[in-house]
Amino acid sequence: MSTPSPLEQRLQAELECLKEKGNYRSLPGTEREGEFVVADGRKMHNLSSNDYLGLAADTALRAEFLRRQTPEGFLPSASSSRLLTGTFAAHRRIEQQLAGLYGKEAALVASCGYHLNAGILPAIGHGRMLVLADKLMHASFIDGMRLSAARCIRYRHNDYAQLEQLLARHAAEFESIVIATESIFSMDGDEAHLPRLTALKRKYPGVLLYLDEAHAFGLRGNRGLGCAEEQGCLPEIDLLVGTFGKALASAGAFVVCSRTIRDYLVNKMRTFVFTTALPPWQMEWTSFLLDRLPALSGRRERLGRMGHFLRRAAHARGYLCPSTSHIVPLIAGTSSEAAKLALRLQERGFYVLPVRPPSVPEGTARVRISLTASLPDEALQKLAEAL
Ligand SMILES: *Cc1c(COP(=O)(O)O)cnc(C)c1O
Q1: How remote is the CA of residue 7 from the centroid of ligand 1, in Å?
Q2: Is residue 73 part of a domain?
Q3: Is 212 a catalytic residue?
Q4: Ligand 1 pocket test: which of 135, 138, 187, 272 has the largest number of ligand atoms within 8 Å of its C-beta?
Q5: Is 201 a catalytic residue?
Q6: Is 158 one of the catalytic residues?
Q7: What percent of the chain is modeled with pLDDT above 90?
Q8: How many CB atoms lie within 10 A of CB 87?
Q9: Same domain for 38 and 112?
Q10: Nearest ligand 1 atom to alpha carbon 117
Q11: Which residue owns the Cα nearest ligand 1 atom 4?
Q12: Cα-to-centroid distance, 114 and ligand 1 (Å)
């Protein structure tokens, strides 16, 4: 064996350091069986996916979709970026469908939520823009801030008093101010209070609201459009990002916004311009599911009841659990405590995973339970008992 290069020596040392802290990650060798996960020969309920409505586990739905497919219509590649020959009828249809559902001028579909959050701020940002972002924004948005020419400040999680102080102090220095938050937060499962943000938007000129609904799209509101629909704030949201890869059981993401912003993103957003468009068949599947979304309120209500039940059980057993949603974290403390708790629940038949730094702050390692409407009542009962 040749001696490792200086780079490999450095990387190896860092990996060892991660292992010592219990923060080393590796790709699991699990298999999926419908709504179950099989690991080490054990079949467990999958409580670590984002298939919140159980649509990805619904074979009947896939069968119905596949019956309509023909070899001519089944296009597994767009073979081009959107700006060249990669825009198909299905892309246009979904964008019209989304703009209509949200009552906005325009929508733009991109490869994934990561691309949108990492691409929008670098595209629209400039030296006279201030971005005020919740401290717990997703990594993709953080990357967008890093690449943006805008001045970016993060406010304490859901601390709207601090947010208003920042506005009062800085509003006059900037031409535009983007306030950015997730609606349901991915790691804590708690929520933004959108009317507080729309009130700030009315009070300070030049404010735009940027809302990441990755964990709420499909789940909240009468038609499943997200928390902005549920909280009656849709008209005041300027940039609303949703993903198709979570509750909607597909892949890709969208932003709904004004026509001007959409046209600008088409011209300037590098994560949109310089990548191959989503495959047309994937868009067909997304459109098939979008058509059904408003009618899935039974599943949404079920998930709401399940979250309520599990959060109550977690509190009753003394867990620190900030959630108000179907994402139920059990905060354990150190990485090794979280790993132990996850293993214990896995032994009881529930595939849950520890979430460790840097995904969450040091000292708040946790087990993150992602509920899905496809989990049977008896299993939920058993899970509550296993806590
Ligand atoms: C998953 C997620 C994204 C990224 O979406 P993808 O389509 O999976 O790339 C963005 N924001 C939040 C809050 C997310 O949880």
Answers
A1: 31
A2: no
A3: yes
A4: 138
A5: no
A6: no
A7: 92
A8: 18
A9: no
A10: 10
A11: 113
A12: 6
Same-domain check for residues 218 and 86: yes
Q: How far is the CA of 250 from the centre of ligand 1 (A)?
A: 13
Q: Among the options 58, 191, 212, 284, which is catalytic?
A: 212
- CATH code for position 49: 3.90.1150.10
The pLDDT score that the predictor gives to residue 129 is: 98
* Helix-helix angle 113-124:259-268, to 10 degrees: 100
Higher pLDDT, 91 or 21: 91
Q: Which atom of ligand 1 is nearest to 243's Cα? A: 7
Does 266 lie in the same domain as 316? Answer: no
Which pTM does this prediction carry? 0.96
pLDDT of residue 192: 98
**Phi, psi (deg, nearest 5) at residue 196:** -65, -40
For residues 120, 206, 216, 193, the Cα torsion angle rounded to the nearest 10 degrees is 150
Q: Is it the case that residue 1 has pLDDT exceeding 70?
A: no
Residues 211 and 309 in one domain: no
Interval 210-233: pLDDT, tens:
999 999 999 999 999 999 999 999
The residue whose CA has the least distance to atom 1 of ligand 1 is: 214
Q: How far is the CA of 86 from the centre of ligand 1 (A)?
A: 23
Decide which of 278, 307, 331 is a domain's last residue.
Answer: 278
Q: Which of 48, 183, 186, 374 is catalytic?
A: 186
pLDDT tens figures, 90-134: 999 999 999 999 999 999 999 999 999 999 999 999 999 999 999
Q: Is 58 an active-site residue?
A: no
Alpha carbon nearest to ligand 1 atom 8, residue: 113
Among 95, 366, 126, 378, CA closest to 244: 95
In the numeric block, which tokens belong to residue 162?
Answer: 């601090």
Q: Which two tokens stand for residue 140?
A: 């993709």
**Active site annotation includes 186:** yes
List all residues 6 or more positions away from 319 whose beta carbon is below 8 Å from its beta carbon.
330, 331, 387
Q: Is the CB of residue 293 less than 8 Å from the CB of residue 224?
A: yes
Domain count, the chain: 2
Active site residue 5: no
Residue 276 has, within 13 A of its CA and on its CB side, a CA count of 8
Instruction: Calculate how far, in angstroms, residue 189's C-alpha sits from the geometric centre of ligand 1.
Output: 14
Q: How many whole angstroms separate alpha carbon 239 and alpha carbon 231?
A: 16
* Domain residue limits at 47: 22-57+296-386
Is the N-terminal amide bond of 329 cis, ω within 30° of 0?
Answer: no
Residues 107 and 256: beta-carbon distance below 8 Å? yes
